[in-house]
Write a structure and sequence with these properties.
alpha+beta, Rossmann fold, OB fold (Dihydrolipoamide Acetyltransferase, E2P), 2 domains, six-stranded mixed β-sheet, five-stranded antiparallel β-sheet
């Protein structure tokens, strides 16, 4: 049965006292697909290895269902790990790789065969059971590694950047597969990645780490739409930052002065003073025609653009010289230096808590 995971006061420092993780607190519900997201060196993989029992914390506790497992060796924790490099045995068949953990646990042969076959079926690799690992593609090897982890019926599944060695198309496919498997088996899964697309598209919740500190925890929508600081806002996607002065609420709108002119947003807790506002590039639209009425009109001139297939990334310069990034579908009609009016909905202007 899947376990909840509680991380209480966990910290880690290496030699010379260099802190990798500062004391942190987390609770992961049973059956949750939870992401540890952050840049290289933020401490996310260190935390995962502490949960797995591969590293010892300097202080703090790890609990599975309120039972302290901090002092238990990895094989006693009922957790399974999927590594970045797959860690498969090249001399063994696919079936024997999947059965490896079951044999190490001295399960009866009948149970081994049933559970290994079930795990291969789950990842859609039954037809490859007798193949050797070197003959498999990267995506197939990742499925085998996942099947091996699932076969032992772990209470917690740990995944350490499992898709980083795959090409873009395979990553997209495996994101869907891992999500499906976790949902079908109601697994508690803790997934480490630096790829925001993986975290936003797959996770029930995300903990965003930087410099050994959890910057923010919440659902993908919460983190993307309501980041708590500039780091969180920028790490989760493109963003335009504005320094604004709040002027109170009028006609149901929070009024503000900005380098782009007077803007309005949906009222929140703050109504006065200076702060940083953010606008995502996809929230900005190019107005077509002079007769269109819209709130938050921003007069700019077009600078340049990059075509990326399904979207284009455009850059505009406002009257004060500041640059605005815009994500749009097309820009064939735009010429550098052309006057363009941008607009943004009041719902799409967020304020940071600085």
């Amino acid at each position: 049965m899947a376990a909840s995971v509680t991380i209480s006061g966990i910290s880690k420092s290496y030699k010379k006292g260099t802190p990798v993780l500062l004391p942190l607190e987390l609770h992961i519900a049973a059956g949750e697909l939870f992401f540890l997201l952050g840049p290289s060196g933020c401490g996310k993989s260190t935390l995962l290895r502490i949960i797995a029992g591969l590293l010892e914390p300097n202080e703090g506790k790890i609990l599975f269902d309120d039972i302290d497992i901090t002092g238990l060796p990895p094989e006693k924790r009922q957790a399974a790990m999927v590594f970045q490099n797959y860690a498969l045995w090249p001399h063994l068949s696919v079936f024997e790789n999947v059965a490896f953990g079951l044999r190490a646990a001295r399960q009866p042969e009948k149970v081994i065969r049933e559970k290994a076959a079930d795990a291969l079926s789950l990842v859609r690799m039954s037809d490859f059971a007798e193949r050797r690992v070197p003959s498999l593609s990267g995506g197939q090897q990742q499925r085998v590694a996942l099947a091996r982890a699932v076969a032992v019926s772990p209470r917690v599944l740990l995944l350490d950047e499992p898709l980083s060695n795959l090409d873009a198309k395979l990553r997209d496919e495996m994101r869907l597969e891992i999500t499906r498997i976790c949902r079908e088996r109601s697994l508690t899964a803790i997934y480490v990645t630096h790829d925001r697309r993986e975290a936003l598209s797959m996770g029930d919740r995300i903990a965003l780490l930087d410099k050994g500190i959890i910057q923010q925890t919440g659902s993908p929508v919460e983190l993307y739409r309501c980041p708590v600081n500039r780091f969180a806002a920028a790490f989760l996607g493109g963003v335009n930052f504005l320094r604004v002065r709040l002027k109170g609420v009028a006609d149901g709108r929070l009024r503000m002065e900005s380098p782009l002119g007077n803007l309005c947003a949906v009222p929140g807790k703050r109504t006065e003073g200076e702060c940083t506002a953010l606008i995502r590039p996809e929230a900005l639209s190019i107005l077509r025609g002079d007769s269109v009425r819209a709130e938050n009109r921003i007069e700019t001139e077009y600078v340049n653009g990059t075509f990326l297939g399904e979207r284009s990334e455009l850059r505009f310069k406002a009257a004060d010289g500041s640059l605005l990034d815009v994500t749009a579908g097309t820009f064939e009609e735009l010429v550098p230096g052309m006057h363009s009016t941008l607009t943004v909905s009041p719902n799409d202007i967020s304020l940071l808590k600085d």
